[in-house]
Amino acid sequence: MRYFIFAIFLLVIGLFVGNTSLFSHFPAGDGPRLIAHRGQHQLFDRTGLDGESCTASRIYKPEHPLLENTLPSMQAAFASGADVVELDVHLTPDGEFAVFHDWTLDCRTNGSGITEETPMSLLKTLDIGYGYTFDGGRTFPFRGTGIGLMPTLDEVLTTLPQGRFLINFKSRRTEEGAELARLLGDPALRERIFGVYGGEEPTNEAVASVAGLKGYGKSSAKSCLLGYLATGWSGYVPEACRNALVPVPVNYAPFLWGWPERFYNRMAAAGSEVLLLGPIAAGDPGSSGIDDIAQWKSVPAGFAGYVWTNRIEKTAALARESGYCDRSPASRLCNR
């Protein structure tokens, strides 16, 4: 019995020593780096949110005039310190990538129908601010202001030549990944795309076709994190976590072997980037970010990965108010 207890003791010590971050550090730098989800945009009530919810009809009272996925919103996001702007794309019948979030046009615009089935020539005539309301439809503060504001991916890359972007495929069409790969045959454009995610088929096609391009889909992210939970105690990094983008919900992060520094360094050694997301709740289909003081308190000091946020314009203030900047005085974010 004594030998059994001693063996258990040695096992526990081994797991601790092999996974504690006491002997590991983030690489020196001025991180974290920031991903602005949808650019600078209107926030909305996530209560009871599902995949069919029209988020434009549940926005909070506007604090600024910017609409998601538009050139002005992306410009503002970069001006507020974003390293990467996340945007959504749909491949239209006339061969353009329309930058727009929704699968259909009915929620946000004065049009109707499926976004990817609508020619870009028609999408350009729509008012993308038409459906936004914060008071149950009594007023529509952006109606008339969004005419012609839906950009193409080409326009984004041309207008913001220094910007880097994370592309979200909204469909499961393999051809979207193939078309993006064709576009990224231009080396100058390739450097502009930080990564891809979303629909499994186009994501996998793009990653397989473009050397060095990283990405993730729902299945690959799940396979990575669950696989790591099963094997990470030994230091082994599953194949699904290699040369990829690894999204980590902040409420699950503490359960990952070696979180935070050792986990980060294992992923970096495997060629991957770590994306710290907001808490994931059961039934919430959205992409919550590190968007308030409580969540910033959970960001590890000196974190060298990417922080996903829906409030890029408030990020520096939230980081300071949370005490993050006291723990990470060298952060570029904290010196803005």
Protein architecture, described:
With about 325 residues, the chain is α/β, with parallel strands linked by helices. The protein has one domain: TIM Barrel (Alpha-Beta Barrel). Helix content is about 30%, strand content about 15%. The protein has helices at about 1-20, 70-80, 120-125, 155-160, 175-185, 185-190, 200-210, 220-230, 260-270, 295, 315-320, 325, and strands at about 35, 85-90, 95-100, 165-170, 195-200, 215, 245-250, 275, 305-310. Strands 1, 2, 3, 4, 5, 6, 7, 8 and 9 form a nine-stranded mixed sheet that branches. The longest helix is centred in the first third of the chain and has 18 residues, at about 1-20.
What is the number of independent domains?
1
Please report the distance between the alpha carbons of the first and last residues.
60 Å
Which regions are unreliable across 5 or more consecutive residues at pLDDT < 50?
6-12
Q: Please identify the structural class as seen in this structure.
A: alpha/beta
Shape: globular
Radius of gyration: 21 Å
Total number of helical segments?
Answer: 12
Mean pLDDT: 92
Roughly how much helix do the residues carry, as a percent range? Answer: 25-40%
CATH class: Alpha Beta
Order of helices and strands: HEHEEHHEHHEHEHEHEHEHH
Per CATH, which architecture? Answer: Alpha-Beta Barrel
- Write down the oligomeric state: single chain
The proportion of residues in beta strands is 5-15%
Q: How would you sum up the major sheet?
A: 9 strands, mixed
Please, what is the CATH homologous superfamily? Phosphatidylinositol (PI) phosphodiesterase
